[in-house]
Write a structure and sequence with these properties.
This protein is an alpha/beta fold. Helix content is 34%, strand content 21%. α2 links the parallel β3 (66-71) and β4 (100-105). It is globular. The model has no long low-confidence stretch (mean pLDDT 95). The protein binds 5'-deoxyadenosine (5AD) and iron/sulfur cluster (SF4).
């Protein structure tokens, strides 16, 4: 999952608020998250665990007894951002020497106790599978000792913890369905920071979706590093060789999608992230079958060249990827498709970069998340290949890719003109209080006059004009 996808960029690092607990312990928590949607979803688990212990939240870190920052390690830049933030917390520690600072998430898992040496201010280091131990870790830190728990688990899915919905618009929520990743893409640090892939019991997922619907939510996004490899066979960890009987009673991702779609026709279902090597036609037919499963697939390609894809250990070729695109177009004709692309991976030539551009021309993606390759310690690529594409070449190639994507996004947006879109209203438009915004099934933002509509309503909007990535229109009955 990309650092800035699904999550609105403005939410990165925003303090997350929880309603006050009944059993208050008088202590205040300042909690902020960086990185992918999974991190934001994890913070909702963390908030739930600490709310149970009586913590209330604050938006002012000078007021906090405990500061937690949920971190991302996907690229060097993401880590630098966290370090800058830690520097700012130093000011709060000066005014409150008892303040406890904890780092959570992928960067904590990557650096482990080294974090304590590198950043003297940090008291607690906790990996993504160890959040249940947070109350004890806080107790330890309160005695003046440092506390670390970076154990990775093969079972933990936090399935029984009801997340506290943070920074929510009351309309859309995340539900995590798998944790970890078994793929070992050579550039990626996630398998090291989030451990083995585990699927969560389907009934707990469906129950969470039902609860959300009853609370007024109208959209859920099922989250996993590779949702297509979701498989429940009575246990979370994937069996090497499941028996025929186990497979007959298993729940696949396509089946899970259907179970969630059946919760209510007015509950929209989205999911992220799909993996081209694992996305089956079953999933596509399921999307086509249910109106409330959104016609939008985030299908990271990373590169349009088969040699680079092989070095990246992605498990597919350019041709395979194109055939997946062809299947999507055939089975779900109005499906929006988005991608992640890494530019300037080890030894990438100019021709290979051109292959990425030509693949983009083939697909004409609706949206894209594009990054310059950033070497990560301990990954396969760091051990095997040289990060030899000069920084200025990486940024020039990135700029070419971004430019082309902007063109394609504008083109796709224009295709929506003159059509009626079923829009789920999310809130008031940033530009005008008189306007509301929401998304269509393809995840495109649509803006229209407010009238008496409110977040959570479905409206049909005729698109009359557009900007680069937004449709503007009026409600038609
Ligand atoms: N450098 C640059 N981008 C990366 N991503 C993952 N690892 C790296 C890296 N080392 C990108 C991929 C992935 C997304 C979540 O982040 O495109 O799909
Ligand atoms: Fe990283 Fe690849 Fe797993 Fe995505 S599928 S988290 S890119 S290893």
């Amino acid at each position: 999952m990309s650092e800035n996808k699904v999550i609105d960029e403005s939410k990165q690092g925003e303090a997350l608020m929880v309603e006050q607990p009944q059993n208050s312990n008088g202590k205040k928590l300042f909690l902020e998250s960086y990185g992918c949607a999974m991190n934001f979803s994890d913070s909702e688990i963390v908030a739930s665990i600490l709310k149970d212990k009586g913590f209330s939240t604050t938006q002012d870190f000078f007021e906090a007894d405990v500061i937690f920052v949920n971190t991302c390690a996907i690229r060097e830049g993401a880590e630098q951002r966290v370090r800058q933030r830690l520097n700012e917390y130093k000011k709060a520690k000066k005014t409150n020497p008892d303040l406890i600072v904890g780092v959570l998430g992928c960067m904590a898992e990557r650096l482990k106790s080294k974090f304590l040496e590198e950043e003297k201010l940090v008291d607690i280091v906790v990996g993504p599978d160890a959040y249940r131990s947070l109350p004890e870790l806080i107790e330890t830190a309160e005695t003046g000792q440092k506390a670390v728990n970076v154990l990775l688990s093969k079972e933990e899915t936090y399935a029984d913890i009801a997340p506290v919905r943070l920074g929510s618009n009351g309309v859309s929520a995340f539900i995590s369905i798998t944790r970890g990743c078994d793929n070992m893409c050579s550039f990626c640090v996630v398998p090291f920071t989030r451990g083995r892939e585990r699927s969560r019991e389907p009934e707990t997922i469906v129950q969470e979706a039902k609860d959300l619907f009853e609370q007024g939510y109208r959209e859920v996004t099922l989250l996993g590093q590779n949702v297509d490899s979701y498989l429940w066979t009575g246990g979370g960890l994937k069996k090497e060789n499941p028996t025929k009987e186990e497979l007959e009673h298993a729940t696949t991702f396509a089946q899970l999608l259907e179970k969630v779609a059946l919760v209510h026709p007015d509950l929209r279902v989205r999911f992220s992230t799909s993996h081209p090597k694992d996305m089956t036609d079953d999933v596509l037919y399921m999307i086509a079958k249910h109106e409330n499963i959104c016609n939008y697939i985030h299908l990271p390609v990373q590169s349009g060249n088969s040699r680079i894809l092989e070095m990246m250990n992605r498990g597919y070729t350019r041709e395979w990827y194109m055939s997946r695109i062809d299947s999507i177009r055939k089975i779900i004709p109005d499906c929006a498709i988005s991608m992640d692309i890494i530019t300037g991976f080890c030894s990438e030539t100019e021709e290979e970069h051109q292959d990425t551009l030509s693949l983009m021309e083939y697909v004409k993606y609706d949206f894209g998340y594009m990054f310059a390759y950033s070497e990560r310690p301990k990954t396969l690529a760091e051990r095997k290949y040289k990060d030899d594409v000069p920084a200025e070449v990486k940024s020039r190639r990135l700029a070419e890719i971004v430019d082309l994507q902007l063109k394609h996004s504008a083109l796709r947006t224009k295709e929506g003109l003159g059509k009626v879109h079923r829009v789920l209203v999310e809130g008031v438009s940033k530009k005008s209080k008189e306007q509301l915004f929401g998304r269509n099934s393809q995840s495109l933002v649509v803006v229209f006059p407010k009238e008496n509509y409110k977040p959570g309503d479905y409206v049909n909007v005729l698109a009359e004009s557009c900007t680069g990535a937004t449709l503007i229109g009026k409600v038609v009955k």
